[in-house]
Design goal:
Number of helices: 6
CATH superfamily: Glutaredoxin
Order of helices and strands: HEHHEEEHEEHH
Number of strands: 6
Shape: globular
Helix content: 40-55%
CATH class: Alpha Beta
Length: 193
């Protein structure tokens, strides 16, 4: 993770690069995301999409798993599976202040402000190679669209970048909720005489 922080610091100093970064998080449990990210043509298309203003990295944390708890002899407890996070992921989890890695794959957008990471987590779909590509592309387009509305002189303002991105995400979620409501209304209306 120290190497990653060094890399981020290097890009922060470059002119015209936003202080907003992206990290694609996935594991071996996400073979379609993995295939897309390993394909040079897909990666070049993502690079073309993000341009020089927005840096996106990919990180493959160690795979966690669900396990049943072990109780000492003579005791009882609920046999509910618990998420077991690998020790290797501790630095990643602490760095980005994420709860665990069970909610990946995701595109984690972040910026550093006063020693803390401000982040937005965007879920990715790994159901097929096409949907994995489309999902990554959609989230990157969303991020680039939010960044395109920010003036050049504000690219080095981490709190402003985070606020703009958060508002953009809130608007997108509200729009999705509204379209689902309209679809539900149309569905219900089709049953009415």
């Amino acid at each position: 993770m120290d190497l990653f922080r060094t890399l981020i610091e290097e890009y922060k100093g470059k002119e015209g690069v936003a202080q907003l970064f992206g990290v694609l998080l996935y594991t071996d449990q996400h073979p379609n995301i993995k295939k897309v990210l390993r394909d040079d043509d897909y990666w070049l298309s993502f690079n073309e999409l993000t341009g020089d203003r927005f840096c996106v990295f990919s990180v493959k944390p160690a795979k966690g798993k669900y396990e049943f708890p072990i109780f000492p002899p003579g005791t009882t407890g609920m046999m509910v599976q618990m998420w077991k996070e690998p020790v290797e992921n501790k630095k990643l989890i602490e760095l980005f202040e994420i709860e665990d890695t069970k909610n990946i794959p995701m595109l984690l957008l972040f910026t550093e402000f006063k020693g803390e990471f401000l982040k937005v987590e965007l879920k990715l779909d790994d159901s097929s190679q096409d949907t994995a590509y489309s999902s990554i592309k959609e989230q990157l387009e969303f991020s680039c669209n939010a960044l395109s509305q920010i003036k050049e002189e504000n690219l080095k303002n981490p709190s402003g970048l985070y606020s703009a991105l958060s508002f953009h995400q809130d608007d997108r979620l509200k729009w999705k909720l509204l379209t689902k409501s309209v679809d539900l209304y149309a569905y219900i209306k089709s049953f009415l005489p």
